[in-house]
Write a structure and sequence with these properties.
94% helix; 6 helices; mainly alpha
């Protein structure tokens, strides 16, 4: 009796310690939910003026809610198991007198309860580790999201600067082109005027013998001026064509450089998105494996006395696996939509560059 009483006291102490640990986990869960809500508020404030990134934020919120719901479901499952153990312990106390005649059976039942209690303790430790892993993953994802947002803002600023620079250069080249065009027209007018003067002097030369020498001199000068004007006009035309070609080459170079930088940034974002998808899939796969292991253990431990209860537990765990599978499929669908939106964003960036 003393030994059984000591065992009962020890079992009760462990159950109390487990209850206290469970309460601590619930408190930590509530604190985590509060922190997630605060982070969500900060993200919504930061992304308020960024319509093109709303989908990314919504995806982040969905991922966080899915992980929090998974932790909450595991805590609820642990609470149910603890209540079952407490009920079995109470039943063992009530049946203490009949059990005296069969101490071996009582000892075996206590050992089974102790094994279940240890398994629940390990399960709680796993839940705590999952929570810490989730917090670290969430922190890294937040940092990555902020970094990507800063890179996009920097790239947008660089694009605006390049556009302003190109606009200024376009205006400069346009003014230069207009000035050269005006000068070309003036020279052409002078050339036409020179041709008219040449014709006039030539007519005078034909009708005036006394002014022959003067007219010849004038004609030579006009011929020289005509050739010089024609040469200068040709040079200006070549200069105008050269500047226009240089302007086109410079524009093409700037556009190519800008497109390369944008492609690199978008490629980095796509790689980061793929890494996050892989991490989330691995986390869900691990969660499913843990649930499958728990089902296998439950099936091995079932006996005729608790067969219906364990069957219900197995059914519940199978339903949880089905729910997790649905959540994984939904999350994959949302991540695919996010990838499509990133591609659309890349297309819009290319169109804005053009």
């Amino acid at each position: 009796n003393t030994k059984r009483g000591a065992l009962l006291v020890e079992c009760k102490q462990k159950i109390d310690a487990h209850t206290e640990k469970r309460n601590d986990l619930v408190t930590e869960r509530d604190n985590l939910l509060q922190q997630l809500n605060e982070k969500q508020t900060i993200i919504e404030t930061m992304m308020k003026n960024q319509p093109s990134e709303d989908t990314l934020v919504e995806s982040l919120k969905t991922n966080e809610n899915v992980d929090v719901e998974r932790l909450q479901e595991q805590l609820e499952s642990t609470n149910i198991r603890v209540q079952q153990l407490e009920a079995e312990l109470e039943l063992a106390k009530q049946q203490q007198q009949p059990i005296k005649s069969n101490s071996d059976e009582y000892q075996q039942k206590y050992e089974d309860l102790l094994i279940k209690f240890n398994e629940i303790s390990l399960n709680n430790e796993q839940i705590l580790n999952d929570k810490l892993t989730f917090e670290q993953s969430n922190k890294e994802f937040q940092e990555s999201l902020l970094k990507d947002k800063q890179q996009i803002e920097e790239l947008t600023t660089e694009i605006a600067i390049l556009k302003n620079s190109l606009s200024t250069e376009n205006e400069t080249h346009l003014r230069s082109y207009e000035a050269l065009t005006t000068e070309y027209k003036n020279l052409k007018n002078e050339l036409d005027q020179t041709a008219q003067e040449r014709t006039m002097y030539k007519d005078k030369y034909e009708h005036t013998d006394n002014a022959t020498d003067q007219i010849n001199t004038t004609l030579s000068k006009l011929e020289h001026d005509y050739k010089e004007s024609l040469k200068k006009c040709t040079q200006l035309t070549e200069k105008l064509n050269t500047q226009h070609q240089e302007h086109l080459e410079e524009l093409a170079k700037l556009n190519n450089q800008q497109q390369i930088e944008l492609n690199n940034k978008l490629k980095e974002l796509q790689e980061e998105n793929n890494r996050i998808i892989l991490e989330k899939e691995n986390q869900h796969k691990k969660a499913i494996e843990v649930l499958k292991m728990e089902i296998a253990k439950t099936e091995r431990e079932q006996n005729s006395e608790h067969e219906n209860e364990f069957q219900m537990e197995i059914k519940r765990l199978q339903e949880e696996i089905a729910k997790l599978s649905l959540q994984i499929n939904q999350q994959k669908k949302e991540l695919e939509e996010k990838s499509s939106q990133i591609k659309e964003f890349e297309k819009l960036k290319q169109e804005s560059t053009l």
